[in-house]
Amino acid sequence: MSALVIAEYESGQLKPATAIAVTAAKVCSDDVHILVIGSDIAPIAKEAAALTGVTKVLAIEDMNFKDGLAEHIAAEVAGIAGTYEHILAGATSFAKNLLPRVAALLDVTQVSEITKVVSADTFERPIYAGNAIATVQVLDPIKVLSVRTTSFVATETGNDAAVEYRLSAAQLGAVATLVGRETVKSERPELTAAKVVVSGGRGMGSAEDFHLLEPLADKLNAAIGASRAAVDAGFAANDLQVGQTGKIVAPQLYVAVGISGAIQHLAGMKDSKVIVAINKDAEAPIFSVADYGIVGDLFEIVPAIAKALQ
Question: Is 146 exposed, middle or buried (0-12, 13-18, 19+ CB in 10 A)?
Fold first, then answer.
């Protein structure tokens, strides 16, 4: 049977998580479809059709989906799910809101954050904050899966799959309405897609001192992240949190400044290619995963590194 990938997009472009989910879907099935749902989706459908390995794009264009509400999309996905054995999406905030609803409507199990497809019904996923890997076999007729975006590479482009436009069949009703949406705009790279991330922890001391990371991030063209301790202390915004309860990142370079390295934080960044830790405590757990460590006063070291990069 076929696999269905639910497309995630923003500002008229597919998000990288969709191409990553396609990579996992191709291991599950030779027949991979992408569902693009919303309003004014023709450019998105065309972009999805270009992903290698995709055999068909299902495009459902309806003003009822213009706000991208999970309640509405889940009803549509559940309505067409009967012809698929796998339903996948990247493990982003979008999917974490959507896929549990889809699984509940289908009365099946959802497997979150898969890191490997062993076979069509067996998958690996991290547990215990990434300290162990569970192998999970799913016996449900439909497998609902979120794909950890740091564990698969994005599928390439160069395809020209057929795009099939369909009418919505879901009975939506007044399940939910959008009251408002606030979009955070930044000149920096998006945190989960950045090649370099500079993160600060509780050792930054205050929200004012957290800005000390900005010159270094500017020199490295890096995204800025934060530990949960820094977020809880009010040093940084919630959307910057890296860790088990935040965002999972795996950049080429991760610079941890004033972060002790709690297990929950390590779960969100330990797959980074190169990890640099700056901390005054030589016994901090962050040094156990760091490729390079600097023990010292971050308020002297960070400005010195930024200056040297000039």
Answer: buried
The C-alpha angle with vertex 158 and arms to 155 and 160, in degrees rounded to 5, equals 110
Picking from 195, 291, 292, the residue whose alpha carbon sits closest to that of residue 252 is 195
Q: Per residue in 40-93, pLDDT tens?
A: 999 999 999 999 999 999 999 988 888 888 999 999 999 999 999 999 999 999
Residues, the chain: 310
Q: How many angstroms separate the CA atoms of 162 and 55, rounded?
A: 7
Which among 128, 121, 308 has a CA at the least distance from the CA of 219? 308
- Predicted confidence (pLDDT) at residue 127 exceeds the cutoff of 80: yes
The backbone region for 11, taken as left when phi is positive above 0, alpha when psi lies in -120 to 50, beta otherwise, is: left
- Residue 173 per-residue DSSP state: T
Would you say residue 181 has pLDDT above 80? no
Which one-letter amino acid corresponds to residue 177? T
Long-range contacts of 58-63 (CB under 8 A, 24+ apart): 58/4, 58/33, 58/34, 58/164, 58/166, 59/163, 59/164, 59/165, 59/166, 60/35, 60/36, 60/165, 60/166, 60/167, 60/168, 61/165, 62/37, 62/38, 62/167, 62/168, 63/39
Residues facing residue 134 across a β-bridge? 125
Could you say which DSSP state residue 51 is in? Answer: B
Per DSSP, the three-state class of 113 is strand
Say which residue the tokens 């264009």 belong to: 61
Other CB atoms within 10 A of residue 136 CB: 18
Rounded distance, CA 223 to CA 283, Å? 27
Question: How confident is the model over 183-191, as a mean pLDDT?
Answer: 81
